[in-house]
Amino acid sequence: MRKRAILLIVILIVGLVGFFVIQGGLFDRVLFDTEGRYDPSELNDMGVIYVNRSDIIEFNEGYSESDNCPWGAIHNGIDYLFFNNSDVIAVAPGIVKKIDLTDWGPGGAHRYVIGVEIRFNASVTLNYGFEPWTNSTLEQAQQVAMFNFEVGTWIAKGDIIAKFLKAGEWSHIHFGVYQGNSARDPTLYMSTSSYNELLGMIHDFRPTWEISYP
User: Fold this and answer.
1) What is the pLDDT of residue 34?
2) Is the pLDDT of residue 157 over 80?
3) Over 70: is that where the pLDDT of 175 sits?
């Protein structure tokens, strides 16, 4: 009886560990394999999410880890304010792991966020938060219909993720990089040419600002 009880306890522990590993996404990370599509060893050549600077209306917020920045608040990514129907492109290759819809409820103008998570390697994910700044369910559905992929699709750097729907005045994409579960400064992963391009775009609007304030 004692051996049987010990065996049942071991089975229970193994089952619980397996459940939390799968639920936490560790299973995907441990077994991540690009199947030869690209080298996932290090992300150090990340690009920008726009095709041309002319696609960008304005720049208001970059990455910051304190309120000691021009926008005065912690911000875990970079905001891109696109013109309507502009192409949003992948900054790096990866596989689409999630497409999540957040609905803040009908009371506000900024009701919907459509989050796209693309995994680059076992630890790094790229997040594109489409924020059309609308209360309209039809406009939210319109933005979703403008995506070029579904969960499980492999994306190459430069592929068009979607056309952008500018539904409201403050429509934008919030772009973030996560290592594990922690937001990281996106500039740590960018190529030199892309860093210079992004900084140049920012200086078109805000001549004294930096991309990030870690």
Assistant:
1) 96
2) yes
3) yes
Burial class, 167, CB count within 10 angstroms (exposed 0-12 / middle 13-18 / buried 19+): buried
Query: Taking all residues of the chain, what is their mean pLDDT, rounded to a whole number?
Result: 89
List the end-to-end C-alpha distance of the chain, in Å, as a whole number.
Answer: 59
* SS3 category, 184: strand
Q: What are phi and psi of 202, to 5 degrees?
A: -60, -45
Distances (CA, A) of 70 to 190, 202, 210: 22, 12, 9
Phi-psi region of 12 (alpha: psi -120 to 50; beta: other; left: phi over 0): alpha
Give the pLDDT confidence score for residue 28 in this predicted structure.
52
Please give the C-alpha separations between residue 206 and each of 62, 88, 174, 184, in angstroms, as whole numbers.
11, 22, 18, 23
Residue range 53-213 forms a domain whose CATH class is: mainly beta
Contact 87, 55 (CB under 8 A): yes
139 backbone dihedrals φ, ψ, rounded to 5°: -70, -35
